[in-house]
Amino acid sequence: MGRRPSTATRLVFQAFLDSPGDETYGFELVRATGLPSGTIYPILRRLEDDKLIKSRWAEVETETQRRRRRYYMLTAAGRRVAHAATVEQRQALRLLAPGLAP
């Protein structure tokens, strides 16, 4: 990641850092950050292209349907970049996003 990450990207990074060992999916990131899906998914695609996250598809069964869901996780390099991008603004980012831990 050659340029400084946008506030939206830093919000996504903070959501990942709040649960660094866990996989998450797009809608969870939408809820955590308060960003629209039209903002989240391009960020995820860019982070995956930069090898800062990895993803996998999984079958998810609910009471009424069966569908595929894409799960995302920070890579080791992604954790380093995410930490560096958010360290100075961690509290402010959490105040901006409704679903991030205070």
The second-level CATH architecture is Orthogonal Bundle
- Element-level helix/strand string: HEHHEEHH
Large-scale geometry = globular
Distance between the first and last residues' Cα: 27 Å
- What topology, given as strand order, has the largest sheet? 1-3-2
* Cα-atom radius of gyration: 13 Å
**CATH uppermost class:** Mainly Alpha
**Structural class, from helix and strand content?**
alpha+beta
Q: Main beta sheet: strand number and arrangement?
A: 3 strands, antiparallel
How many individual helices?
Answer: 5
Count of individual beta strands: 3
Describe this structure in words.
With 102 residues, this protein is α+β, with helices and mostly antiparallel strands. The chain has one domain: Arc Repressor Mutant, subunit A (Orthogonal Bundle), CATH 1.10.10. Helices cover 49% and strands 20% of the residues. Helix 1 (7-17) packs across helix 4 (76-86), helix 1 packs across helix 5 and helix 2 (26-33) packs across helix 3 (37-49). The longest helix has 13 residues, at 37-49. The radius of gyration is 13 Å and the shape is globular. The mean pLDDT is 89.
